């Protein structure tokens, strides 16, 4: 029996339910033949706002997967298919040409992806091919954790509490690595270039941003291991300081592409707590972040409108966002005149990543102080983040813009100066990304004198713009 594992955002061999299941013997006890594939839907990626950082990173993850699978005798066929319709077309063709009887894959929470999978099940079923989809991206099957009255949790704290209860009675486990037991030589498949849109992933080794982000599964498992022996212990105190390079795990890109599984991360943190109770709180603080990720994934499934650029709170559709392309540009380029905001925006451009505290700050700055539509910021982040992920990005943006799930009634404001005083008091982070301020004393880096140096003046009066935004939001509740 031949089975096809279709890899999407689960680009790993460890703890992979689809791969594990495909490697199990057939009902008659015969070993199965396993073929794997990845289909790059470049046009679809663009339609989903993926920028080149995320695209190139995914390709590197695919290349690593191909090499790892090869060492286990499993061929990974890689095709260039443009969009989701193309994926279905070529999957069915593969099944027919290679006599495949089952397709196995891990579920994705996004709406278009789920529609595509439903369509595949129908089309494949019509020609006698079975499809199996596995929950993979979350600890609890996505969309299944509901309140007693059957409605979704809308507030994180209640969701978290119920998650922890659920996980008490359904302990997290990982799937074994079945590929090591595959004794049989797997089939050697060569597709004809004239009939198939063959594509070979590249290493993108010359790309300066990519160089900073490992895409090797082996290396990422080591990074997780290292974080759990050296980093997580201080996480509760260090995680808010952007100048601290090791304050957070920097595993978001790997989690977003499924190069690491959330279950492995969760169990690694739990292991720290079991071995050393003094780190109970620090490790649980990290687990809470994994639960934020979980929360946003569940929401995406339960509120499909989130995938259609709609606000979580429908009443906020009435907000009159400012159309201010020049202001938006200054924010994007890190030229607002507020040093911590600018340093953060330059970190994004230069590294493809931004510290979580700063993501919150710049998102509040754009949506509240500049009263520019959060969707502009969401898009800019998708274009630049190496860890771009619809669920977490949309969740984070809507939280910051008060159109989302934030429990605070309607107004959350983070002052750029106050945030700098609290979380970059020595101006170290600012100096790293704004070299033009590096020679100033710490206080002046945080709030430079106007006109003293070659640095833009603050683009807005914080007090006035705060007032304006407050009024706009108040209008909604009247
Ligand atoms: P750690 O602090 O080590 O956390 C561990 C993991 O938990 C992260 O890798 C991530 O998978 C998850 N996580 C942590 N914080 C959050 C959070 N607030 N929400 C959801 N998951 C979280 N994260 C993305 O992965 N992709 C995005 O596109 C994204 N966009 C964001 C946009 C905004 C406006 C905001 C406020 C947050 C966004 N986040 C996003 C969440 C968070 O900022 C990043 O996950 C985190 O900074 C990644 O760094 P880390 O891996 O070192 O995290």
Q: What is the topology?
A:
Blueprint lengths: L1 E5 L10 H6 L10 E8 L1 H6 L4 H20 L4 E5 L3 H14 L4 E5 L4 H16 L3 E5 L21 H14 L38 H4 L5 H15 L3 H4 L13 H6 L4 H14 L4 H23 L22 H9 L5 H13 L4 H14 L4 H11 L5 H12 L14 H8 L4 H6 L8 H5 L15 H16 L1
Parallel strand pairs: 1-2, 1-4, 2-3, 4-5
Helix pairs in contact: 4-5, 6-12, 8-11, 11-12, 12-17, 14-15, 15-17, 16-17
Bound molecules: flavin-adenine dinucleotide.
The site of flavin-adenine dinucleotide has 27 residues, from helix 10, helix 12, helix 15 and helix 17.
Structure characterization notes:
The structure is a single chain. With 478 residues, the protein is mainly alpha-helical. It has three domains: 135 residues, Rossmann fold, CATH 3.40.50; 123 residues, Serine Threonine Protein Phosphatase 5, Tetratricopeptide repeat (Alpha Horseshoe); 164 residues, DNA Cyclobutane Dipyrimidine Photolyase, subunit A, domain 3 (Orthogonal Bundle), CATH 1.10.579.10. It is 49% helix and 6% strand. The chain contains 21 helices and five strands. Strands 3-2-1-4-5 form a five-stranded parallel beta sheet, with helices on both faces. Strand 1, helix 1 and strand 2 form a beta-alpha-beta unit. The longest helix is centred in the middle third of the chain and has 23 residues. It starts with a strand and ends with a helix. The mean pLDDT is 95. The site of flavin-adenine dinucleotide has 27 residues, from helix 10, helix 12, helix 15 and helix 17.
